[in-house]
């Protein structure tokens, strides 16, 4: 009788609020040391790279020709830290999924949340919030640190109220959040940290690096590729190659959505 009564009081998995699933994911997220190590590395490397690159910008600007100074973009100069930040925040997105496969905790998570799309959806929602906040904070911090250092060297700098500046800084945060979700999708598809990280490195570094070797008919696709067309949103000086950077970023987000869709399908169909 006691066992039957207790069973009747247990919640049915389908009736458990989605907020409780998100809260459970938050507990797992903040309890991992790797989470805090990755976030600390993001802040340290992100601002460190900004400080290092800005420290010699005075001499670089002095050596520029008048024509080159016409295209001077101090905002973009201080936001180039995204080149490394995207990899670190990508690692965070991968670990949200693959850390559970590595430790076997995924079995427990699926037992607690049999509805798999709810589990992966909770992970994606949590990561989106964290990546958006952390990425945006990094972009604003990098901007203000960079502009302060440029001003100290007597180099023309920008203020947050200048045309296009706030849009570029905010765009950097959106870009990093999209990369984090891309990494989560890769982690769910490949279920291995090393494989997902290698794929992410190929996407954000190798393909753009060898873009000049691809045939002409692929140029339209590369316009929406990370670190190429999509990253043009971090500039304030219009580029003739990417005249509509926010459209490029939107195209990249559609690609990320496609990867996430594949991740949800595979996550539901696999045994584990």
TrEMBL record:
<dbReference type="Pfam" id="PF12730">
    <property type="entry name" value="ABC2_membrane_4"/>
</dbReference>
<feature type="transmembrane region" description="Helical">
    <location>
        <begin position="246"/>
        <end position="267"/>
    </location>
</feature>
<feature type="transmembrane region" description="Helical">
    <location>
        <begin position="124"/>
        <end position="145"/>
    </location>
</feature>
<keyword id="KW-0812">Transmembrane</keyword>
<feature type="transmembrane region" description="Helical">
    <location>
        <begin position="197"/>
        <end position="218"/>
    </location>
</feature>
<feature type="transmembrane region" description="Helical">
    <location>
        <begin position="82"/>
        <end position="103"/>
    </location>
</feature>
<keyword id="KW-0472">Membrane</keyword>
<feature type="transmembrane region" description="Helical">
    <location>
        <begin position="36"/>
        <end position="62"/>
    </location>
</feature>
<protein>
    <submittedName>
        <fullName>ABC transporter permease</fullName>
    </submittedName>
</protein>
<keyword id="KW-1133">Transmembrane helix</keyword>
<feature type="transmembrane region" description="Helical">
    <location>
        <begin position="165"/>
        <end position="190"/>
    </location>
</feature>
